[in-house]
Amino acid sequence: MVDSKQQWKAWLYLAPAIVLLLIFTVWPIINTVRMSLLENYKSLEAVRGATFQFGFGNFQKVLEYKRFVQCLKTTTLLCVLTVPISTILALLIAVALNSIKFLQKGLQTIFFLPYVTNSIAIGMVFAAMFNIVGLRNGLNGETIADTWGIINNVIMFFGAEPINWINYGSSYAANIAVMTVYIVWNALPFKILILLGGLQSINKQYYEAARVDGTPRRRVFSKITVPLLSPMLAYVVITGFIGGFKEYTSIVGVFGDTMGPAGDKGRLNTMVGFIYDALESNNQGRASAGALILFGIILVVTLINGYVSKKKVHY
Amino acid sequence: MANRIMQEHDMRIVSARQRIIKGGVKFFTYAFLIFIAIVVLFPFYWMVISSLKTIEEYRLNIPTFFPKKIMFSNYLRAFTTANLGRLFVNTMIVGVASTLLSLVITVLSAFAFARLEFKGRDMMFALLLATMMIPGELFTITNYATVTQLGWMNTYKVLIIPFLVSVFYIYLLRQNFLQIPNELYLAAKVDGTSDIKYLWRVMVPLSLPTLISITILKMMGAWNSYIWPRLVANDEAHRLITNGLRNAFTQASGDVDYPLQMAAVAIVSIPLFLVFIFLRKYIMAGVSRSGIKG
Amino acid sequence: MKKIVASLLLVVMMVALLSACAPAAKKTNSAFAVPAGGYDGSAVTISFYNTMGSNLTPVLDTYIAEFNKLYPNITIEYTSVGGYDDVREQIATEITVGNQPNLAYCYPDHVALYNLAGAVATLDNLIDSKIEVKHADGTTEILGLTAEQKADFIEGYYNEGKQFGDGLMYTMPLSKSTEVLYYNKTFFEANNIAVPTTWDELEAVCAKIKELDPKSIPLGYDSESNWFITMCEQQGSAYTSATGDHFLFDNAENRAFVKKFNEWYQKGYLTTQNIYGAYTSGLFVSTTGTRSYMSIGSSAGATHQRPSAGADGKYPFDVGIATIPQLNADKPKVISQGPSLCIFAKENPQEVVASWLFVKFLTTNVGFQAEFSMASGYVPVIKSVNDNEAYASFIASADGGNYISALSAKVCLEQEHAYYTSPAFNGSSTARDEVGALMTKCLLFKGDDVDAQIATAFQDAIDECEYSN
Fold first, then answer.
1. Does the pLDDT of residue A160 top 90, yes or no?
2. Which of A6, A99, A194 sits opposite B117 (nearest CB)?
3. Of A209, B58, C63, C157, which residue is least crowded by CB atoms under 10 Å?
């Protein structure tokens, strides 16, 4: 029932958004495609009037990069780790928050705090917490340090061996663990907010009915709460993946511009980090090609997510 | 009879056990939440104590958990080195103007997507969502060229207009609108109510929480934006707060004065934090509705 | 689906069209041509990007006022943009639409980047110009630099402006810093240790300190990048080149010194900022537990190398400052850092000339150089500042305690013949980052195949440099 009056009205309402999007979003995207197809395009050289060959050289150059697979691996690994962990944790917190009365509002406010802070500044705080100062071998070959960092102090308090998290000689696994903690920490508030909102809008009658039937807690959770929350869960998972593939500032926050521990520069570089590196040396062509490849990846992941959630989500 | 007493006895045991379980669950719930709350708060604690340290103490190898000498003056310095009053006014102008305009555009677009039938609607909505997936950093150079050609450098326009449309907000609000029964709209049509009137009288009040959420997110954006404002409007008359505070960080030697930086971050975060505390109810309600897909 | 494919094709075609009709080459400057009359007295506004904090802008304000007494029609508008990287990013974007400032703080690699667009004005013709320009009070000066003025610049600083591979002058030094060796004077004197002037002596001193205090790490070196580049310079081995093949640092001589320092590190002689996990000055100023007795760091950071004073206001030990160790003490080489100024080409040559007059004023004015240096911890770029009364008394006050900044400045001034700068090109900062990371990585290697590991690390660093270019 597409009547013509609704047609033009719709376009009229959309006009301001469309005009602005055409100028400030669509045109930049077209320009990105253009730059990606001009071999070795550098905007500063273009100013001087240099011309560039048309071709797919930029894409080839991105894929050729020795550490491209490494960037992709780190990005994917962080996504695969942080999205489920933060979602499950947020779900547990939201359910717990929803079940209490006393302190609920205060705790809710606390959990929202990370949302209103600058991620680079807090990243520095995380780095300080994990940082070991003066790690080296002692006179008898034992490992000593001037300061183990607050996290290791806690670990040692429980009698376990301290771990080299982010410093010189630290392992990739330890680095990823720190990043996972930080990213989850950062992602929690938004997810808690969405899930708690969802929980509070679930009709209380379902729970009443379950209580009358004497359904055990676990079953209530898996048969009522999760299915009814599934649209929200799908939403936080999808946006989590989109954000996860664009991970960058959190790593700069913890590891600095080197994107890796001392002695292994770029170990934790990600796709967006790669794009930034290319922009830094004014390689807009290569950066654009990298961004389009990233766009392709996110699109595929989102489509898969959408497909899965269509099957699993109850509306 | 005896049997019956036994049963009652059993039931009492059962209910006692249930009470214990209930108490245990409650205990663990609180323990869990408070543990997480401590984890969440710790970095903030660190930020606050760092912002109160002298730079010498901050640079100590063995960090102190409480500043030996409390430097409230760091806040004063972060505050006064930048022309804070002006920065604040600028930020408010940009924040309020961009929020109002953004709300109008978002409401109209979300209405079109949620209520009106037109050719290519779903396709267009999908395309809009796809633009969210492109890293925004790439747009900077092109947009910079555009606003220069428009002659918008160092104006409020350049801070407000380019980011008025947010696909994310349109998406949020559309989800919200979809939940309002279509019958209301059709009834309004029959009564001859104009779309705008209907929007204003029915849709907007019903989706107020979402609109408030958008307002807050938008204000937060104005408060936190850094790269774009620095590029296009870095004159005294238009500079925004984050840019202004950033200047306080770098010392003459090129070193960053971290305690001062932490103080500045804290200053910048406080208003947002207060806004959340006071408007928590609305934000929560807004989010809870928009999350549900219609 | 067909629609999507069709629209994609359309986009590709549009793009092909767009790129086909790229604008014809409009070549910008190669060398700036000085207008016949020099500065004609017209009113121009000069925008100046810098990174000055609130402690330095008052000095700048004072001297802008002085400058305006000579040239009242030249208005200087300065903006503090943030850090050096912020300045670079901002200007690189602004150049794409021709919005760049007239004048900016710069490091050599920034200029190389701007030069991709040919945006920086060359200074040779301005420096050599003999045209007389009039002041407001009727007196005159020549537009260029006089022979005395040229000779007054510390040579190493002045030559930084010519490091771009074409022999042309692009920048003027504003204020500089370098690396110096801080040592625990009290400890050195108590144990009768001579301050090392060469790397060989340093090795012996480290061994001696290790004997005296086995728990110590005798030397902390803050910047791995500077260390690598300085070693290349001292031994005359290849690092980078501004022309042709840029990245030359993978050679036997460089691998050899890296191997040597690897052995030192394994003996526990030294640490660096990234290995240590904090500024090594923290280790140097510590008076308990593990400590170091020598620290090589920025001359501008002298106050961080001073231990905190006790309750009686006395420092637990006295700090000495010396030139960093050399391979050949007769021909010392120390790195030159700190901001220079570059002038951007503009349609109106008067803007360029006016910018130059201001640059000339800032870099040759003894009063400005003296006050700016004292306020910033950097050192002046002209020798005649030593004759400035305030500055002379500042230097005379030098000691290892309260006046440590003066002591650092004094050491910097005494080694004026030793400054070097590295070639600058688009990618020189990548090379700098990569050799720093390389040095850090190589120190850790141990076992039988250290040589092979070092060789691989060098190759990787070269690959990264080549790729990012």
1. no
2. A6
3. A209
